[in-house]
Each structure stands twice: as C-alpha cells, then as structure tokens.
Design a protein that fits this description.
InterPro entries: Phageshock_PspC_N, PspC. This protein is about 60% helix and about 0% strand. By secondary structure, it is mainly alpha-helical.
Length: about 60
C-alpha cells in the first residue's frame, strides 16, 4: 500500500507539495502552482491553514 510522506529532498517550506507530487508521481512545480492558485482564489488564510495542518498531519519518511 502506497503512503504519502513529507518530502525530504523536494521541499521549499515544509515538503507538503513535494510529498504530494511524489505520491501522485507528477512534477512538484505543478502541485506548487495549483496550491498557490487555490490559495489565492479561496482566500489566503484558508490556504495557509490547510498547508500548516498538512505539515503537522502528514508523517516524515523514516528509513527503518
């Protein structure tokens, strides 16, 4: 079963967009653009809160 993790190698702030891109196997730039456009159109506060919640909820990848 495939799981989503925060990206350690492809991150700018918290690794959420990089992790989503790795999970769906698409370019992280596309995910970042979708995130920015979605945040602008839905109000900055909601998008920022959702990103912060995702940083807290999505686990970091461990190598054990």
């Amino acid at each position: 079963m495939k799981k989503m993790y925060l990206s350690d190698s492809d991150k700018i702030i918290g690794g959420v967009c990089g992790g989503v891109a790795e999970y769906f196997e698409i370019d992280s730039t596309l995910i970042r653009l979708i995130t920015v456009v979605g945040t602008v159109f839905t109000g900055f506060f909601a998008g920022i809160i959702i990103y912060i919640v995702a940083m807290v909820i999505v686990p970091k990848k461990t190598f054990f």
